[in-house]
Recover the amino acids of this structure.
Protein backbone atom coordinates (compact mmCIF):
# COMPACT_ATOMS: atom_id res chain seq x y z
CA UNK A 1 0.00 0.00 0.00
CA UNK A 2 1.28 3.46 -0.89
CA UNK A 3 0.51 6.32 1.48
CA UNK A 4 1.83 9.40 3.24
CA UNK A 5 -0.09 9.21 6.52
CA UNK A 6 2.05 11.19 8.96
CA UNK A 7 5.23 10.86 6.89
CA UNK A 8 7.17 13.54 5.04
CA UNK A 9 6.80 11.74 1.71
CA UNK A 10 4.92 8.85 0.10
CA UNK A 11 5.98 5.44 1.38
CA UNK A 12 5.15 1.81 0.66
CA UNK A 13 3.59 0.12 3.68
CA UNK A 14 2.84 -3.60 4.10
CA UNK A 15 -0.64 -5.07 4.45
CA UNK A 16 -1.54 -7.38 7.33
CA UNK A 17 -4.41 -9.38 8.75
CA UNK A 18 -5.42 -10.56 12.19
CA UNK A 19 -8.21 -12.58 13.80
CA UNK A 20 -9.10 -14.37 17.00
CA UNK A 21 -9.78 -18.09 17.40
CA UNK A 22 -13.35 -17.59 16.10
CA UNK A 23 -12.21 -15.69 13.02
CA UNK A 24 -13.37 -12.30 14.29
CA UNK A 25 -12.27 -9.23 16.21
CA UNK A 26 -12.06 -8.83 19.99
CA UNK A 27 -10.33 -6.45 22.42
CA UNK A 28 -6.98 -8.24 22.15
CA UNK A 29 -6.97 -8.28 18.34
CA UNK A 30 -8.11 -4.66 18.19
CA UNK A 31 -5.24 -3.63 20.45
CA UNK A 32 -2.78 -5.52 18.24
CA UNK A 33 -4.20 -3.83 15.15
CA UNK A 34 -3.78 -0.34 16.60
CA UNK A 35 -0.23 -0.96 17.82
CA UNK A 36 1.04 -2.79 14.74
CA UNK A 37 -0.86 -1.10 11.92
CA UNK A 38 -2.17 2.32 12.93
CA UNK A 39 0.32 3.83 15.37
CA UNK A 40 3.35 3.33 13.04
CA UNK A 41 1.56 5.52 10.47
CA UNK A 42 1.95 8.54 12.77
CA UNK A 43 5.54 8.51 14.15
CA UNK A 44 5.32 12.13 15.37
CA UNK A 45 2.07 11.64 17.32
CA UNK A 46 1.94 13.08 20.86
CA UNK A 47 -0.74 13.98 23.37
CA UNK A 48 -0.36 17.67 22.53
CA UNK A 49 -2.43 20.12 20.46
CA UNK A 50 -1.73 19.60 16.77
CA UNK A 51 -0.11 16.22 17.38
CA UNK A 52 -3.10 14.10 18.43
CA UNK A 53 -4.70 11.50 16.16
CA UNK A 54 -8.40 10.68 16.23
CA UNK A 55 -9.79 7.39 14.93
CA UNK A 56 -13.54 6.86 14.58
CA UNK A 57 -14.60 3.27 15.25
CA UNK A 58 -17.82 1.27 15.08
CA UNK A 59 -19.53 -0.37 18.06
CA UNK A 60 -17.86 -3.78 17.82
CA UNK A 61 -15.98 -5.72 20.53
CA UNK A 62 -13.11 -4.09 22.42
CA UNK A 63 -13.99 -0.49 21.64
CA UNK A 64 -14.61 0.30 25.31
CA UNK A 65 -11.59 -1.54 26.76
CA UNK A 66 -10.51 1.05 29.37
CA UNK A 67 -6.85 -0.05 29.80
CA UNK A 68 -6.34 0.11 26.04
CA UNK A 69 -8.09 3.50 25.73
CA UNK A 70 -5.97 4.95 28.55
CA UNK A 71 -2.76 3.61 27.03
CA UNK A 72 -3.65 5.06 23.62
CA UNK A 73 -4.56 8.48 24.99
CA UNK A 74 -1.21 8.78 26.73
CA UNK A 75 0.32 8.48 23.25
CA UNK A 76 -2.08 11.04 21.76
CA UNK A 77 -4.31 8.47 20.05
CA UNK A 78 -8.03 9.01 20.69
CA UNK A 79 -10.87 6.67 19.75
CA UNK A 80 -14.24 8.21 18.93
CA UNK A 81 -17.23 5.83 18.86
CA UNK A 82 -19.46 6.01 15.81
CA UNK A 83 -23.26 6.05 16.15
CA UNK A 84 -24.73 2.57 15.65
CA UNK A 85 -26.96 1.90 12.61
CA UNK A 86 -26.17 5.24 10.92
CA UNK A 87 -23.85 4.11 8.13
CA UNK A 88 -25.50 6.22 5.43
CA UNK A 89 -24.95 9.39 7.46
CA UNK A 90 -21.77 8.81 9.45
CA UNK A 91 -19.53 6.64 7.27
CA UNK A 92 -17.36 8.95 5.17
CA UNK A 93 -16.60 6.51 2.37
CA UNK A 94 -20.30 5.80 1.86
CA UNK A 95 -20.64 9.43 0.79
CA UNK A 96 -17.99 8.87 -1.89
CA UNK A 97 -19.48 5.66 -3.20
CA UNK A 98 -22.71 7.35 -4.29
CA UNK A 99 -21.07 9.43 -7.07
CA UNK A 100 -18.70 6.53 -7.85
CA UNK A 101 -21.55 4.07 -8.46
CA UNK A 102 -23.45 6.53 -10.64
CA UNK A 103 -20.40 7.14 -12.83
CA UNK A 104 -19.34 3.49 -12.89
CA UNK A 105 -22.79 2.27 -13.91
CA UNK A 106 -22.89 4.94 -16.62
CA UNK A 107 -19.60 3.59 -17.98
CA UNK A 108 -21.05 0.08 -18.02
CA UNK A 109 -24.06 1.21 -20.05
CA UNK A 110 -21.92 3.11 -22.55
CA UNK A 111 -19.39 0.31 -23.02
CA UNK A 112 -22.02 -2.44 -23.14
CA UNK A 113 -23.99 -0.59 -25.85
CA UNK A 114 -20.85 0.04 -27.93
CA UNK A 115 -19.68 -3.57 -27.64
CA UNK A 116 -23.15 -4.88 -28.50
CA UNK A 117 -23.19 -2.90 -31.73
CA UNK A 118 -19.94 -4.58 -32.77
CA UNK A 119 -21.07 -7.98 -31.40
CA UNK A 120 -18.24 -8.00 -28.91
CA UNK A 121 -18.40 -9.11 -25.29
CA UNK A 122 -17.33 -7.28 -22.17
CA UNK A 123 -14.47 -9.03 -20.35
CA UNK A 124 -13.09 -9.07 -16.83
CA UNK A 125 -10.05 -7.09 -17.98
CA UNK A 126 -12.42 -4.20 -18.83
CA UNK A 127 -12.83 -3.52 -15.10
CA UNK A 128 -9.88 -1.12 -14.95
CA UNK A 129 -11.31 0.82 -17.90
CA UNK A 130 -14.71 1.04 -16.22
CA UNK A 131 -13.19 2.31 -12.96
CA UNK A 132 -10.44 4.65 -14.18
CA UNK A 133 -11.85 5.62 -17.59
CA UNK A 134 -10.10 6.09 -20.91
CA UNK A 135 -10.65 5.08 -24.54
CA UNK A 136 -11.82 1.58 -25.32
CA UNK A 137 -9.40 0.06 -27.86
CA UNK A 138 -12.17 -2.08 -29.39
CA UNK A 139 -15.01 0.41 -29.90
CA UNK A 140 -13.28 3.77 -29.50
CA UNK A 141 -15.79 5.05 -26.91
CA UNK A 142 -14.42 7.27 -24.15
CA UNK A 143 -15.33 6.51 -20.54
CA UNK A 144 -14.99 8.90 -17.63
CA UNK A 145 -12.67 8.40 -14.67
CA UNK A 146 -15.18 7.18 -12.05
CA UNK A 147 -12.60 6.70 -9.31
CA UNK A 148 -11.09 10.17 -9.37
CA UNK A 149 -14.51 11.74 -9.88
CA UNK A 150 -15.56 10.35 -6.49
CA UNK A 151 -12.33 10.05 -4.51
CA UNK A 152 -10.35 13.18 -5.31
CA UNK A 153 -9.20 15.24 -2.32
CA UNK A 154 -12.09 17.67 -2.76
CA UNK A 155 -14.60 14.81 -2.78
CA UNK A 156 -13.10 13.25 0.33
CA UNK A 157 -13.07 16.57 2.21
CA UNK A 158 -16.72 17.11 1.27
CA UNK A 159 -17.63 13.62 2.52
CA UNK A 160 -15.74 14.15 5.79
CA UNK A 161 -17.52 17.46 6.33
CA UNK A 162 -20.96 15.88 5.80
CA UNK A 163 -20.12 13.20 8.37
CA UNK A 164 -18.80 15.68 10.93
CA UNK A 165 -15.26 14.34 10.78
CA UNK A 166 -13.26 17.25 9.28
CA UNK A 167 -13.94 19.64 10.89
CA UNK A 168 -15.05 17.62 13.92
CA UNK A 169 -18.72 18.48 14.61
CA UNK A 170 -21.96 16.89 15.81
CA UNK A 171 -23.53 17.28 12.37
CA UNK A 172 -24.63 13.62 11.95
CA UNK A 173 -26.43 13.67 15.31
CA UNK A 174 -28.38 16.75 14.21
CA UNK A 175 -29.53 15.13 10.96
CA UNK A 176 -33.32 14.62 10.77
CA UNK A 177 -32.73 11.13 9.41
CA UNK A 178 -30.95 10.10 12.62
CA UNK A 179 -32.13 12.22 15.53
CA UNK A 180 -35.65 11.38 16.71
CA UNK A 181 -37.46 12.34 19.89
CA UNK A 182 -39.88 10.30 21.96
CA UNK A 183 -41.67 12.79 24.24
CA UNK A 184 -44.00 11.56 26.99
CA UNK A 185 -46.13 13.98 28.99
CA UNK A 186 -46.41 13.79 32.78
CA UNK A 187 -49.79 12.00 32.47
CA UNK A 188 -48.29 9.34 30.17
CA UNK A 189 -49.79 10.72 26.95
CA UNK A 190 -47.75 11.67 23.89
CA UNK A 191 -47.80 14.75 21.71
CA UNK A 192 -50.07 14.39 18.68
CA UNK A 193 -47.55 16.09 16.43
CA UNK A 194 -44.61 13.98 17.60
CA UNK A 195 -41.93 12.83 15.20
CA UNK A 196 -43.35 9.66 13.51
CA UNK A 197 -40.05 7.88 14.12
CA UNK A 198 -40.32 8.78 17.79
CA UNK A 199 -43.78 7.18 17.93
CA UNK A 200 -42.34 4.10 16.29
CA UNK A 201 -39.64 3.88 18.96
CA UNK A 202 -42.25 4.13 21.70
CA UNK A 203 -44.35 1.41 20.09
CA UNK A 204 -41.30 -0.87 20.00
CA UNK A 205 -40.71 -0.12 23.67
CA UNK A 206 -44.34 -0.98 24.56
CA UNK A 207 -44.17 -4.24 22.63
CA UNK A 208 -40.91 -5.14 24.32
CA UNK A 209 -42.36 -4.46 27.77
CA UNK A 210 -45.37 -6.70 27.11
CA UNK A 211 -43.24 -9.59 25.89
CA UNK A 212 -40.80 -9.26 28.80
CA UNK A 213 -43.68 -9.45 31.29
CA UNK A 214 -44.96 -12.56 29.53
CA UNK A 215 -41.54 -14.23 29.73
CA UNK A 216 -41.35 -13.36 33.43
CA UNK A 217 -44.73 -15.04 34.04
CA UNK A 218 -43.30 -18.17 32.46
CA UNK A 219 -40.42 -18.13 34.93
CA UNK A 220 -37.71 -16.62 32.71
CA UNK A 221 -35.38 -13.83 33.82
CA UNK A 222 -36.35 -11.09 31.37
CA UNK A 223 -34.80 -8.17 33.23
CA UNK A 224 -31.91 -7.91 30.74
CA UNK A 225 -34.33 -7.61 27.82
Amino acid sequence: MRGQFGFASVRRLPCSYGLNEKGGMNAEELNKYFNKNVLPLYPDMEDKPGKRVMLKVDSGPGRTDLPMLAQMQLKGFYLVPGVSNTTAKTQETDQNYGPFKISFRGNIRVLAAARHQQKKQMLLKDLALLVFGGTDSITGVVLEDSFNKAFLQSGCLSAWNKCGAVPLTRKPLEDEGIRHEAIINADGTTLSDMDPEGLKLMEIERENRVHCKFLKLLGYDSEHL
Notes: The chain is about 40% helix and 10% strand. Strands lie at 2-3, 11-12, 53-57, 77-81, 134-135, 142-143.
